[in-house]
Structures are given as structure tokens and as C-alpha cells.
From TrEMBL:
This is phosphoglucomutase (alpha-D-glucose-1,6-bisphosphate-dependent). It is an enzyme of class 5 (isomerase). Residues 14-151, 184-287, 296-408 form the Alpha-D-phosphohexomutase alpha/beta/alpha domain. InterPro entries: A-D-PHexomutase_a/b/a-I (IPR005844), A-D-PHexomutase_a/b/a-I/II/III (IPR016055), A-D-PHexomutase_a/b/a-II (IPR005845), A-D-PHexomutase_a/b/a-III (IPR005846), A-D-PHexomutase_C_sf (IPR036900), A-D-PHexomutase_CS (IPR016066), Alpha-D-phosphohexomutase_SF (IPR005841), PGM (IPR045244).
């Protein structure tokens, strides 16, 4: 079949962000836009010809169109084998699992994660490397550089491939295999968790669960694993059919956007366990009956109970968390006598620690938890981990978390988001903070003394690479913190994230609402950053 080289001109805005190239759908629909970026990926790589590429996405609008284009470009660029999920579907963690299992040179995952989809929504392209993880900065920079000089792309002239049947097709030198998106991932989960024990609980008649994939990619995975393999009652998975626009919702598992689930879990007759995941299946939220588990606490609980789970029973090499994530897991690490690493926001920063065997569990406040089983965070993995712990401990979610606080103390935590603000104002706010950093240490703010104030810099302990300006931290002498960061995942304007944390060792004080427990820090944040003035908002748009 014929391979064409189509001449093209560079676009100047193809710099991948925190998690790939993410833009509104109409941007991707511009002539040659997607093709340029895909060709830039191939141009930036060496030594991929004849090797395997994994391809799939979260099923959002434009997924199928993009898959057809990428398949034809992969053939034209000499990829040896393309493994594509049936229906164009692969969750991000499943793609990572398949890249590792098949020793692929990488994967292209089509997703804008938790951002809304549909013709006016967002679309995205992520490139993962052979370890199954998001491309590190040196790779994404090379892709960006390649995108700036591109003059043409290669594409096969061929009819569309049937994505809905498990088939193997030969196109020129390339084998295209449409694979079951769930099977390999499900086997991996079964190798880590005690499925017999979980099944006993789920079929006991005394335990109800509700999993809400928010009409996104985890639907088929959750139906298969929870209902078919583990015996949860049919209907335990709600909103489980992936839709191109996620049913008009915002596929982000938090207390605001997972409203059906939250209503159920905080209503009368709530199930024992509730969970949700995001657009591409890497995020998770865990709820007990009328009880929310913060992602930071979830990471700490998983670390403290890992010995109860077959895949982790021999202990953890270390743990890692992103800088704005609470220090709850640090206390567990201390007790276990293992290292706890603090990295910048973005799962890619865990890659080296996982590859080097220095960390086993990782987590982020942004509803991400995962381990060395793949190189992405993994929503269903976290949910199964919790179910395994519940099955062994035979306690409620709330009791497990309260026990945890009793042992380790409670890190009160909250994140306030100011979405859709003007980028120039957001940058000014951050500059305003930067200009105060030098003089803050030693100062008294309200009842608290500033211990340190800095813009977080990270030196990767494995390869020595340095990442600067990763968020402004103001730490107080009692261990409390205020952190300010601008989101790296939005597509319109800027989002300011304010992270608040305080530590309470006294278990008689563990019952407060975090917004009350953190009220003084919320006021201090306003005082130092002038949030109202710069954002023009009186209150955050989302509080988690
Ligand atoms: C994506 C990444 C996460 C990261 C998050 C931060 O989801 O995969 O690793 O924590 O973005 O998003 P933000 O909007 O805060 O930059
Ligand atoms: Zn995601």
C-alpha cells in the first residue's frame, strides 16, 4: 500500500504539559495538527522501527478518528507491530501494563484525563516510553523541538481498520493487532490481590459496593473485575458505559464531580464502599459510608496496610509522594523505617524511583495512587487494594482511617482551586509570593512562625536532573504548610491551587471538619497571596 509524505508547516503550540499535549478538540481538528504532533514523536525517537507500539485511548470524542490516523502513520513510519485496544479503548494503567508486558518501545495514549470531552471538550495525546511511564522531560522536550521544525509527515493511504473485532491484520511491514483492552490488566490485578478473599466478602450478602467510572474508560474494566471476576452484585458498577462526552459530565473523581456517587454514599442506606475513577482510569476516589478518604490519607493507609496484600507482603522498598500531598505517608514511612521521597507534581517524577527499585508505592493529592506494578497511577488498582484491606481487616472504611489517625496522628488537609482565572493575574500572584520568600522565614503569621518559605526545587536522586519552580511552600514550625501552585493540566486560563495542611497528634481533636481545622491557614493564605484581589473571586471554585 502507498505511503505518502504530506508537506506541512509547524504549529508553535505543541509543547506537552504535565501530562501530554492537551488541547480543546477544535485545536486538534485543525488540518495536520494531530499528524504533525505524531510525526514529531516519531522524529524525536531513535530505534523504534520494527518494534511494538501500544495504542489506545479513553474513548472520548475524536478518539476513533485519531486512532485511525495514528495507525496509518505508525505503518508509514515503519513500526513493526501496533497493539490497539478494541474499540480504541485502553485505560492509561492498562496501556502501561501492556507496554511493559509486550516490551513495546512505547505507547500513545489518547486522553485528556479528567477534563470534559465532546466536540467542545478537551482531547489529548500522551507518549509513554518503554518502561510504561509518561515520557520524561528530555523526551517531551525533544518532541516539542521536533514539532517546531517539522516539514512533512508520513501516512499510509488505506481504508480505516475495523477496531471492533479482535483481529490481526498485516499492513505493509506492520502487524496491527486489535486486542482485548481488559485481559492483561485483569491478570495483573489478580496476581497482586487476594481475589478469593475479596470475592468472599463481595458475595457474602453483608457488603455492598458502588463503583462509578463516570461514563469513562474504567467502565469495562470495573464491570469485568468487580462484577464478573469478584462477584459483586450486578449493578454495583454505575455509569459504566464509556461515552464520547462522558454523559456531559466532568470525569474527575472528587466530591464535586462524582455527584451521583457522593449522593449515594452520603445518603440513607449507603453502601459500605464507594469509589470512582477518572476519564482515563488512573485517578481514584475512595469513600466509606458517609465518609470521604482524602487521597493523602489513602496513600498513608495503603502503605501502613501493604503487608496484608499478597503483592506487597514482603514489604515496601520506599514510598514517594508529590510535594503538595500531605505528609501522612511520611509518618508511616518513618515507622516502617523506609525512605519517603518528595517529588514535584506529575506522575512522571516517580518513574526513576520506581525503575531504580527505591519506591514501591507512590501517591498524589490529585487523587492518584499507584505502585511499581505499572508506571502510571492506577485507579482500579487502588480500589482493589482497599477492598483487599477491608476483606482482611473486616472493619469499615471509616474505622480503618480513624484507627490510622489514632496511631499516626491526623494530617488535616484541603485543596482550594480557583479555576479559569486570567493567566497574567495568576502569574502576578505567584510573583508576588516569590518576592516575599526571602523575608518570610522567622516571621510570625497569626499564631504561627514561618519555618521556611521557598519555591520547591527537586533533584532527582537517580539521575541527578533538576526541576525548578515547582510550587511555593510556606512551612510553619509546627509542621503545618501552605502551598501555592498553578495547575499544569488546564486548557483555558489558569488555575490556582492552594494546598493547606496541619498536623494534629491528639486523637481527641480528630473529629473536626478540615475547613474548620484549617481556617486560620486559609486566612493566612489570603493575607500573603491576596487571592481575592488577583483572582477576582471571593471563594474557590472547587474544594477537596
Ligand atoms: C495529571 C498528572 C498527575 C498530576 C496532575 C496535576 O493528572 O498525571 O500526576 O498530579 O496532573 O495536575 P495539575 O492540574 O495540578 O497540574
Ligand atoms: Zn487521568
Amino acid at each position: 500500500m502507498n505511503v505518502h509524505t504530506v508537506s506541512t508547516q509547524p504549529f508553535s503550540d505543541q509543547k506537552p504539559g504535565t501530562s501530554g499535549l492537551r488541547k480543546q478538540v477544535p485545536v486538534f481538528q485543525q488540518r495536520h495538527y494531530l499528524e504533525n504532533f505524531i510525526q514529531a514523536i516519531f522524529n524525536s525517537l531513535e530505534d523504534y522501527q520494527g518494534k511494538t507500539l501500544v495504542l489506545g485511548g479513553d474513548g472520548r470524542y475524536y478518539n476513533r478518528t485519531a486512532i485511525q490516523t495514528i495507525l496509518k502513520m505508525a505503518v508509514a513510519n515503519g513500526v513493526g507491530r501496533v497493539l490497539v485496544g478494541r474499540g480504541g479503548i485502553l485505560s492509561t494503567p492498562a496501556a502501561s501494563c501492556i507496554i511493559r508486558k509486550t516490551r513495546a518501545f512505547g505507547g500513545i495514549i489518547l486522553s485528556a484525563s479528567h477534563n470534559p470531552g465532546g466536540p467542545e471538550g478537551d482531547f489529548g495525546v500522551k507518549f509513554n516510553t518503554s518502561n510504561g511511564g509518561p515520557a520524561p522531560e528530555k523526551v517531551t522536550s525533544a518532541i516539542f523541538e521536533a514539532s517546531k521544525t517539522i516539514q512533512g509527515y508520513k501516512i499510509l493511504e488505506a481504508p480505516d481498520i475495523d477496531l471492533d473485532t479482535l483481529l490481526i491484520t498485516q499492513l505493509n511491514e506492520t502487524t496491527v493487532e486489535v486486542i482485548d483492552p481488559v485481559a492483561d490488566y485483569a491478570d495483573l490485578m489478580q496476581s497482586l490481590f487476594d481475589f478469593d478473599r475479596i470475592r468472599d466478602v463481595l458475595t457474602s450478602g453483608n457488603f455492598r459496593l458502588c463503583m462509578d467510572p463516570l461514563h469513562a474508560v474504567t467502565g469495562p474494566y470495573a464491570h469485568f473485575l468487580l462484577e464478573e471476576r469478584l462477584g459483586a452484585a450486578p449493578g454495583s458498577v454505575q455509569n459504566g458505559t464509556p461515552l464520547e462526552d462522558f454523559g456531559g459530565g466532568h470525569p474527575d473523581p472528587n466530591l464535586v464531580y462524582a455527584h451521583d456517587l457522593v449522593e449515594l454514599m452520603f445518603g440513607d442506606n449507603a453502601p459500605d464502599f464507594g469509589a470512582a475513577s477518572d476519564g482515563d482510569g488512573d485517578r481514584n476516589m475512595v469513600l466509606g459510608r458517609k465518609f470521604f478518604v482524602t487521597p493523602s490519607d489513602s496513600l498513608a493507609v495503603l502503605a501502613a496496610n501493604a503487608h496484608l496484600v499478597p503483592g506487597y507482603k514482603d514489604g515496601l522498598a520506599g514510598v514517594a509522594r508529590s510535594m503538595p500531598t500531605s505528609a501522612a505517608v511520611d509518618r508511616v514511612a518513618e515507622k516502617l523505617g523506609i525512605n519517603c521521597y518528595e517529588t514535584p507534581t506529575g506522575w512522571k517524577f516517580f518513574g526513576n524511583l520506581l525503575d531504580a527499585g527505591q519506591a514501591t508505592l507512590c501517591g498524589e493529592e490529585s487523587f492518584g495512587t499507584g505502585s511499581n506494578h505499572v508506571r502510571e497511577k492506577d485507579g482500579l488498582w487502588a480500589i482493589l487494594f482497599w477492598l483487599n484491606i477491608l476483606a482482611v481487616r473486616q472493619q469499615s472504611v471509616e474505622d480503618i482511617v480513624r484507627d490510622h489517625w489514632q496511631t499516626y496522628g491526623r494530617n488535616y488537609y484541603s485543596r482550594h482551586d480557583y479555576e479559569g482565572i486570567d493567566s497574567a493575574n495568576a502569574n502576578q500572584l505567584m510573583e508576588g509570593l516569590r518576592s516575599q520568600l526571602a523575608r518570610l522565614p522567622g516571621q510570625q503569621l497569626g499564631n504561627y512562625e514561618v519555618d521556611y518559605a521557598d519555591d520547591f526545587n527537586y533533584t532527582d536522586p537517580v539521575d541527578g536532573s533538576v526541576s525548578k519552580n515547582q510550587g511555593i511552600r510556606i512551612g510553619f514550625t509546627d509542621g503545618s504548610r501552605i502551598v501555592f501552585r498553578l495547575s499544569g493540566t488546564g486548557t483555558q486560563g489558569a488555575t490556582l491551587r492552594l494546598y493547606l495542611e496541619s498536623y494534629e497528634p491528639d486523637s481527641s481533636q480528630h473529629g473536626a471538619d478540615p475547613q474548620d481545622a484549617l481556617a486560620e491557614f486559609i486566612a493566612l493564605a489570603e493575607e500573603v497571596a491576596q487571592i481575592r484581589q488577583y483572582t477576582g473571586m471571593n471563594a474557590p471554585t472547587v474544594i477537596t
